[in-house]
Amino acid sequence: MWGFLKRPVVVTADINLHLVALTGMGLLSRLWQLTYPRAVVFDEVYYGQYISFYMKRIFFLDDSGPPFGHMVLALGGYLGGFDGNFLWNRIGAEYSSNVPVWSLRLLPALAGALSVPMAYQIVLELHFSHCAAVGAALLMLIENALITQSRLMLLESVLIFFNLLAVLSYLKFFNCQKQSPFSLSWWFWLTLTGVACSCAVGIKYMGVFTYMLMLVVAAVHAWHLIGDQTLSNVGADVECCVRPACVGQMGMVQRVRVFCHLLARAVALLVIPAVLYLLFFYVHLILLFRSGPHDQIMSSAFQASLEGGLARITQGQPLEVAFGSQVTLRSVFGKPVPCWLHSHQNTYPMIYENGRGSSHQQQVTCYPFKDVNNWWIVKDPRRHQLVVSSPLRPVRHGDMVQLVHGMTARSLNTHDVAAPMSPHSQEVSCYIDYNISMPAQNLWRLEIVNRRSDTEVWKTILSEVRFVHVNTSSVLKLSGAHLPDWGFRQLEIVGEKLSRGYHESTVWNVEEHRYGTSQEQREREWELNSPVQVDASRNLSFMARFSELQWRMLVLRSDDSEHKYSSSPLEWVTLDTNIAYWLHPRTSAQIHLLGNIVIWVSGSLALAIYMLLFLWYLLRRRRNVHDLPQDAWLRWVLVGALCAGGWAVNYLPFFLMEKTLFLYHYLPALTFQILLLPVVLQHISDHLCRSQLQRSVFSALVVAWYSSACHVSNTLRPLTYGDKSLSPEELKALRWKDSWDILIRKH
């Protein structure tokens, strides 16, 4: 029983020292003097403010991508004890003592460091040589732009990490498929592929390009799997199983196995990523529960679900809008800015600047600030009272209403007069009786857009409504045009013909609401200026908040004005551009996003060579000439799908984007080029060099080429780390292209 104590317990492990060494070098290159410079560097000013919002639990909206990337950076701040108190207002600002710079930059640096050994493993999983794998890792190690981007509080290195993790995991899974399907390792790598793809999408929307690539590759492999006759694993029984019943049983087994394979892939690559994507938003919304500066972009219901801000105003309001209710009406569209239906004493000018005439009625606008003139009273056209009666008479879908402006007691009106800025639409005004032949046309039919039944009651915040003019069938609409100075630059409201269809600019919701109790005008004005009582809260479901937030992120357009360092995709491939990230306030030390030009040009050349060779082999195979053995050809195709395809899907879509682009957008595509480069070199050596002499000469050329890449990396090191001040002559010597913007101080 105790025999095992008589012998030593021995544990053996296989350790790949090359992998350990590459990991160590990657960590050293990315973590070396990570806190330098202790100042805000380029887009750290952008991401830093979001980290502060996380630390303070303040809601924000960023249209650059889902929240997972921001949460990764915020995790670094949390681990470092950051309290969020720092003013992220300018590049170059010195960090205060409470900002844990090392911790904030740690996770992007780790992601960049781990991308080095990951490149090594990917090439090995593609069944290329150890030498090619080491070459890919070393290229990742010395590429200057990748080093710079991963040493700062930025997201590209994290995106690249998950892109590579997705590729590596799928290759591991694909190789397990040949040996041990449905084993523990098979499930692990398949699931990790889905997780990595979801994380890549969660970092930036650019991650969806790699995700789509992985889905296409997996779909092609699944298609081949359907036709695989060996899945039944009953090949040994074929000869003895000649009866029809046995053959039918074998077919059923094979169909079940194929179904299980397809189901496993669907769950891992579709369901799990979708669930994780929702989880990112769930955690994001749980963390950010306080009102913040981006609230007004969201709907009234969303704002009311946040602590503070609008929630303090709207809590405790009556839910059902009744005749006599006092309300503010917010445009659901929210463009160009969120605004509320508004009126004031001023009238439209008799004659516009273009010579057209107006009704000279009281102006109705949309005002982007809370104001007492935003209040309206929902009046029953059949009664004179402007107060809520007892018993309560709620307003329902299809009811006729009049909207009376609270402070001026004039009714919302429209008629066959052209709007000031939109002459094809009708003018909307508050009616003034001038005793002329222009009677009031102030009846509106209420339509609840998101109703569940035709008798639904109009609800505060929750109901999205339209007002259809009874006389002209036009609908109350925010045109989005700014009125001239006579309209105080407020937004134009028009009557749009209903036949032109539904649009969010015609939809409104009640934001603030109370039951009116004052019939006299003076008492009502005092009531409208009084605060609303606060005593309860109203919450949205997670799915409702997620849907709105996701939609706002997709349609929101940030200011895409031209930037000094913006560039076009054509400039990236040949490295005709750079970005000055940081300049020391007193010396010439500076940090630039500037790539290793030897690697960039070589990567583009390797891609071109691959495409030419692929087409050549494909044409010859069409003629039944097989230059490569079948297994080598399949490896060559898979390399093209993952590496050349990875470059294409991460680069070509930028030609279709109407946004400000920068050099760092090319880095994910560059990593796939780097993976392809040593593979192409090995292919040339193995299949195109016919003699040993040719292989020796080619190997010597490769060594010389790699030495030149190392030399360029070392030469550009002062601009990569920014830890050395160079003289003006040295800086000019580094300006290898006229388009490079190297900063030289003029003393």
Automatic annotation (TrEMBL):
GO-annotated biological processes: extracellular matrix organization
Key words, A-Z: Endoplasmic reticulum, Glycosyltransferase, Membrane, Repeat, Transferase, Transmembrane, Transmembrane helix
GO CC terms: acrosomal vesicle; dolichyl-phosphate-mannose-protein mannosyltransferase complex; sarcoplasmic reticulum
Gene3D superfamilies: 2.80.10.50
Main subcellular localisation: endoplasmic reticulum
Sequence intervals crossing the membrane: 68-88, 100-120, 126-147, 154-174, 186-203, 262-289, 593-618, 633-654, 661-681
Name of the protein in its database record: Dolichyl-phosphate-mannose--protein mannosyltransferase
Biological source species: Callithrix jacchus (White-tufted-ear marmoset)
Classification lineage: Eukaryota, Metazoa, Chordata, Craniata, Vertebrata
